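#struct-help
A.M.: can someone run this one for me? Single chain, 258 residues.
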Amino acid sequence: MAALGALVFTGCSKLPRWPWAAKSRKTHRERGRVEGTRRGARLAIIIDDLGNDPGEIRSVLALPFPVTASVLPHLEYSAQSADEAWRHGEQVMLHLPMQPIDDGAKAEAIELRAGMSEEQVRSVLAGMLATVPHAIGANNHEGSRATADARLMTELMPLLRARGLFFIDSRTTAATVAYDEAKRAGVRAASRNVFLDDTPTRDAVLAQLDVAARDAMRERYAIAIGHPHPETIAALREGVPRLERRGIRIVFASELVR
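D.P.: on it. Structure tokens below:
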């Protein structure tokens, strides 16, 4: 069992059952071999908010490059979406609901909130992960209040470390302390550079992809977060091959955490 856990954590998984998945798995493995022999700018693309609709995960999986699928817990299609992404050879993350600063914002039924005890955080996290199989990392959903709460973050991060999960700070507030607390707790972590589709139109997403590309070229890596809007998927299908021709390599989020 320990060996199997190690394989899942490093992004490996058993061979896919479906013929259409095998082609994608081979493509991603070939990309990995290229990445091991070259240096260059790397970009990870995370698609958030999966788990609401099975059609959304399938549109993401149809993209011809590696995508990190971040799945909301406790939804009708959470487990199915995570399982399909894993079988397709993609990486799965828990899109971890956290309390926003705006009390008028739509709250998730179950989320991490400021003032929770360590045991409450442990229980909530375990329940979420039970509905998102194959998750090897997490990033926050909302969380502008929660990620700015140092006490809550110091309770969360050792729990992620104990499970071998990395953390991506979605940076929904400039006051976030999540990345810093993750590093203090010994959790592999990184921060989002660009949101792709705050304006969910083709032109806006393509423009944000260019911003992500500039960040990746300057810093040697970048993380972009988008959502499974049809306009976002179409723009990624159009724009990412252009980035690849510029020498930017599309990688999984786990490759950019430290």
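A.M.: thanks! Strands lie at 42-50, 68-71, 91-98, 135-142, 166-169, 189-191, 194-195, 221-226, 249-251.
D.P.: also worth noting: The CA atoms of residues 35 and 226 lie 23 Å apart.
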